[in-house]
Amino acid sequence: MEFFYTYETIKTALPLVDAKNADFAIFGVPFDSTTSYKPGARFGPALIRQATINLESYILDYDIDLADLKIADIGDIDIAAGNPLKTIKRIIETIRELKEANSKVVPIMLGGEHSMTYAPVRALKPKSYIVFDAHLDLRNEYESNPWNHACVARRISELGVEIAEFGIRSGIREEVEYAKEKNIRWVHAREYSFEKFKEIVKDMPEPVYISIDIDVFDLSMVPSTGTPEAGGLGFWDVIEAVEWLTKEKKVVGFDIMEVAGTELGDITALTGAKLMFYLIGMLSR
């Protein structure tokens, strides 16, 4: 199946099917034009896919082999360099085309900077947005750009989507005040617990979209990311939460964003690839 805004690139190391017959469809967004500290997120999708070569397709925890699932990889979005809004529009069009061809498919976006998450939320229209992130991303604008990566949760809140954020350890007063005003609940990384996660999420409406900014994790696990922050969550903290979430709520899509780097085998990409395998496994149970 051809998509107007995608192009062929390195593929995930799994047996793949056509998007029309898939339960999951992976696509990359190699965009990092508003990254404000360390560049390289444009290489995230390729690095995550390459890292899948290192992984067993069998998920021990779930007794599921991803090689037996119907997974498509439709390539990368042909981004508009330096233009986040135009790139977002291309992602929205691609997701709409994908869902018209296969209404049951779950889109999986690999990135790429976090500003792009606005696109699948806009296209899929979830009622709740649950994000794991080091940053609140609730600024109205940053560097005079309302589509900066530091503004993505703010733009999503303007869609009327209910938001909860976990693993936070960076933000400014404006963002904290906006969160209070809009009843956006968030949990600092040092106060995070599975029980707090469940308490906040259990009454949020379905369907749900899940976004994982790779910088939510402890910095030792993810050194190659655009805005690294010390003091993050552990891998199993996030897995435990999302396992519960995928059992209790309908999930319409997810993304793994802000993976950066320039070398194959980067540990940040390895973390992102393992995370993707687990999320696909969870949603297949």
- CATH architecture call: 3-Layer(aba) Sandwich
Q: Treating each run of at least 4 consecutive H or I residues as one helix, how many helices? A: 8
Count of domains: 1
Counting helices, strands and paired strands, the structural category is alpha/beta
- Classified by CATH, the class is Alpha Beta
Task: Set out the fold topology.
Blueprint: E1 6-7, E2 24-29, H1 44-51, E3 58-59, E4 64-65, E5 71-77, H2 84-101, E6 106-111, H3 118-124, E7 128-132, H4 152-157, E8 162-168, H5 173-182, E9 185-188, H6 194-201, E10 208-213, H7 235-248, E11 251-257, H8 267-284
Describe this entry's structure for a reader.
It is a single chain. This protein has helices at about 45-50, 85-100, 120-125, 150-155, 175-180, 195-200, 235-250, 265-285; strands spanning about 5, 25-30, 60, 65, 70-75, 105-110, 130, 160-170, 185-190, 210-215, 250-255. The mean pLDDT is about 95. Helix 6 packs parallel to helix 7 (about 235-250). The protein has 8 helices and 11 strands. The strands form 2 sheets. Strands 1-5-2-6-11-10-7-8-9 form a 9-stranded mixed β-sheet, with helices on both faces. A two-stranded antiparallel ribbon has the order 3-4. With about 280 residues, it is an alpha/beta fold. The protein has one domain: Ureohydrolase domain (Arginase, Chain A, 3-Layer(aba) Sandwich), CATH 3.40.800. Helix content is about 30%, strand content about 20%.
Concise account of the structure shown:
This protein has helices at 44-51, 84-101, 118-124, 152-157, 173-182, 194-201, 235-248, 267-284; strands at 6-7, 24-29, 58-59, 64-65, 71-77, 106-111, 128-132, 162-168, 185-188, 208-213, 251-257. By secondary structure, it is α/β, with parallel strands linked by helices. It has a single domain (6-284), classed as Ureohydrolase domain (Arginase, Chain A).
